[in-house]
Write a structure and sequence with these properties.
alpha+beta, ten-stranded mixed beta sheet, 389 residues, 19% strand
Length: 389
């Protein structure tokens, strides 16, 4: 006699269907300005991303199926519908994240940089520096041929939109940019928008000193030396007036020529710019295959999908970082400190590893996030603070 087995459709329900807005009140705070349906969908996707610790569509859909008691296919469709939802305002979410991460009575450090997304897109991202890492709060993606033709316009438009959201959130920031943003016109836009900045210049920029005009490469600076040139004009037509600082750390390959409008001591300005490297580590945290959430594995063909997913990952990184900080407080050795290289695990990675356990024990409110979000860890170089010979 032939045995006949009937297989029924299975819906994965590892945890009973829950409401992420109630489980994680911080998501309710972040998404408060949005429509109720958008709040539910976005919160559910962030919760699924935090559970899976992968930015893969299938991984997110699998966890979403478990959390909401729906079929896997339905969960995947819900993800794609959200990514292409034109009514969801990415910049409103950016404003909410800026408001949440802003220190009380202080300034944010915002690192700005481009990154490549496979061979299709270039992504311009603004990230809030926290600890030794950074959390992306705004992203703009474009096809690589388009970015090559109109990169200057793209950057200036992105800056204007970010500044609009900073003002709406009543948050002040210091922008940190590498040599790719050395254009004098770019600095002029920042001054027009009344933004504070520290930007590294290339050696072929013309500066007008009190006694002469010259290129930066012609200024004498030796390893282990620092010079504060004060306020100088950039370009031969004296388009922008900035404070020029040159530092060359012993053992470094070349000097840093920094343009800023800050009045802080040289050591503080250099410490600010040094934190810009957090955005490079953030790119590894988001795109990396080994240490990151594998965002690079996604096969999106539309830039708006990339931008929306980048914001979801930014929200997940924010939650992982604060949970990781809470874990570190109760278990100080959890990051596996090395005598030579420091911590082997970032707070975000610790938070991702402990997410299932800690997210059930902790009440993740906006106050919890503000209390456990680490401030930027500034490296105050002793040789810059010592009296110069």
């Amino acid at each position: 006699m032939v045995e006949v087995r009937v297989f029924e459709a299975i819906t994965f329900t590892g945890d009973r269907a829950m409401n992420p807005l109630q489980r994680y009140p911080v998501l309710s705070t972040l998404l408060r300005p949005f429509r109720r349906s958008q709040q539910k969908t976005c919160a559910a996707l962030v919760a699924a991303l935090c559970q899976s610790a992968q930015a893969s569509s299938f991984a997110i859909a699998g966890q979403l199926s478990c959390l909401t008691s729906v079929q896997f296919g339905s969960a995947l469709t819900r993800l794609y519908r959200f990514l292409r939802n034109e009514r969801f305002d990415n910049w409103l979410l950016t404003e909410q994240m800026l408001r949440l991460t802003a220190p009380s009575g202080g300034r944010l450090l915002l690192a700005l940089d481009w990154t490549a997304w496979q061979d299709r897109f270039s992504v311009l991202a603004a990230s809030v520096c926290t600890g030794t890492r950074a959390v992306p709060v705004a992203a703009s993606a474009c096809h690589k041929p388009n970015s090559a033709r109109s990169q200057n316009l793209w950057e200036e438009t992105f800056l204007r939109l970010c500044v609009d959201r900073l003002r709406a959130a009543r948050v002040s920031a210091v922008w940190l940019c590498d040599r790719g943003f050395h254009r004098v016109r770019w600095l002029e836009r920042r001054l027009e928008f009344e933004q504070q900045f520290v930007v590294r210049l290339t050696r072929d920029v013309t500066v007008r000193l009190p006694d002469r005009a010259c290129l930066l490469r012609s200024l004498a600076l030796e390893p282990g030396e620092r010079r504060d040139f004060g306020w100088v004009w950039l370009r031969s037509d004296e388009l922008v007036r900035v404070r020029l600082i040159g530092v060359w750390a012993a053992g470094a390959k070349e000097a840093w020529w920094l343009a800023t409008n800050l009045e802080n001591r040289v050591s503080k300005v250099v410490a600010y710019y040094d934190r810009r490297m957090g955005v490079e580590e953030q790119f590894r945290d988001t795109k990396g295959h080994r240490f990151g959430v594998k965002l690079r594995w996604t096969q999106f063909t539309r830039p708006e999908f990339v931008e929306r997913m980048y914001l979801l990952v930014g929200m997940a990184l924010l939650l992982w970082t604060t949970v990781g900080r809470a874990v570190e407080e109760s278990e100080p050795k959890v990051r596996l400190e090395s005598r030579t290289k420091g911590a082997r695990l970032s707070l975000a990675r610790v938070g991702a590893y402990y997410w299932r356990q800690m997210s059930q024990r902790l009440r993740l409110t906006a106050q919890f996030v503000r209390q456990h979000l680490p401030p930027p860890r500034l490296r105050m170089f002793k040789w810059l603070m010592a009296p110069q010979k």
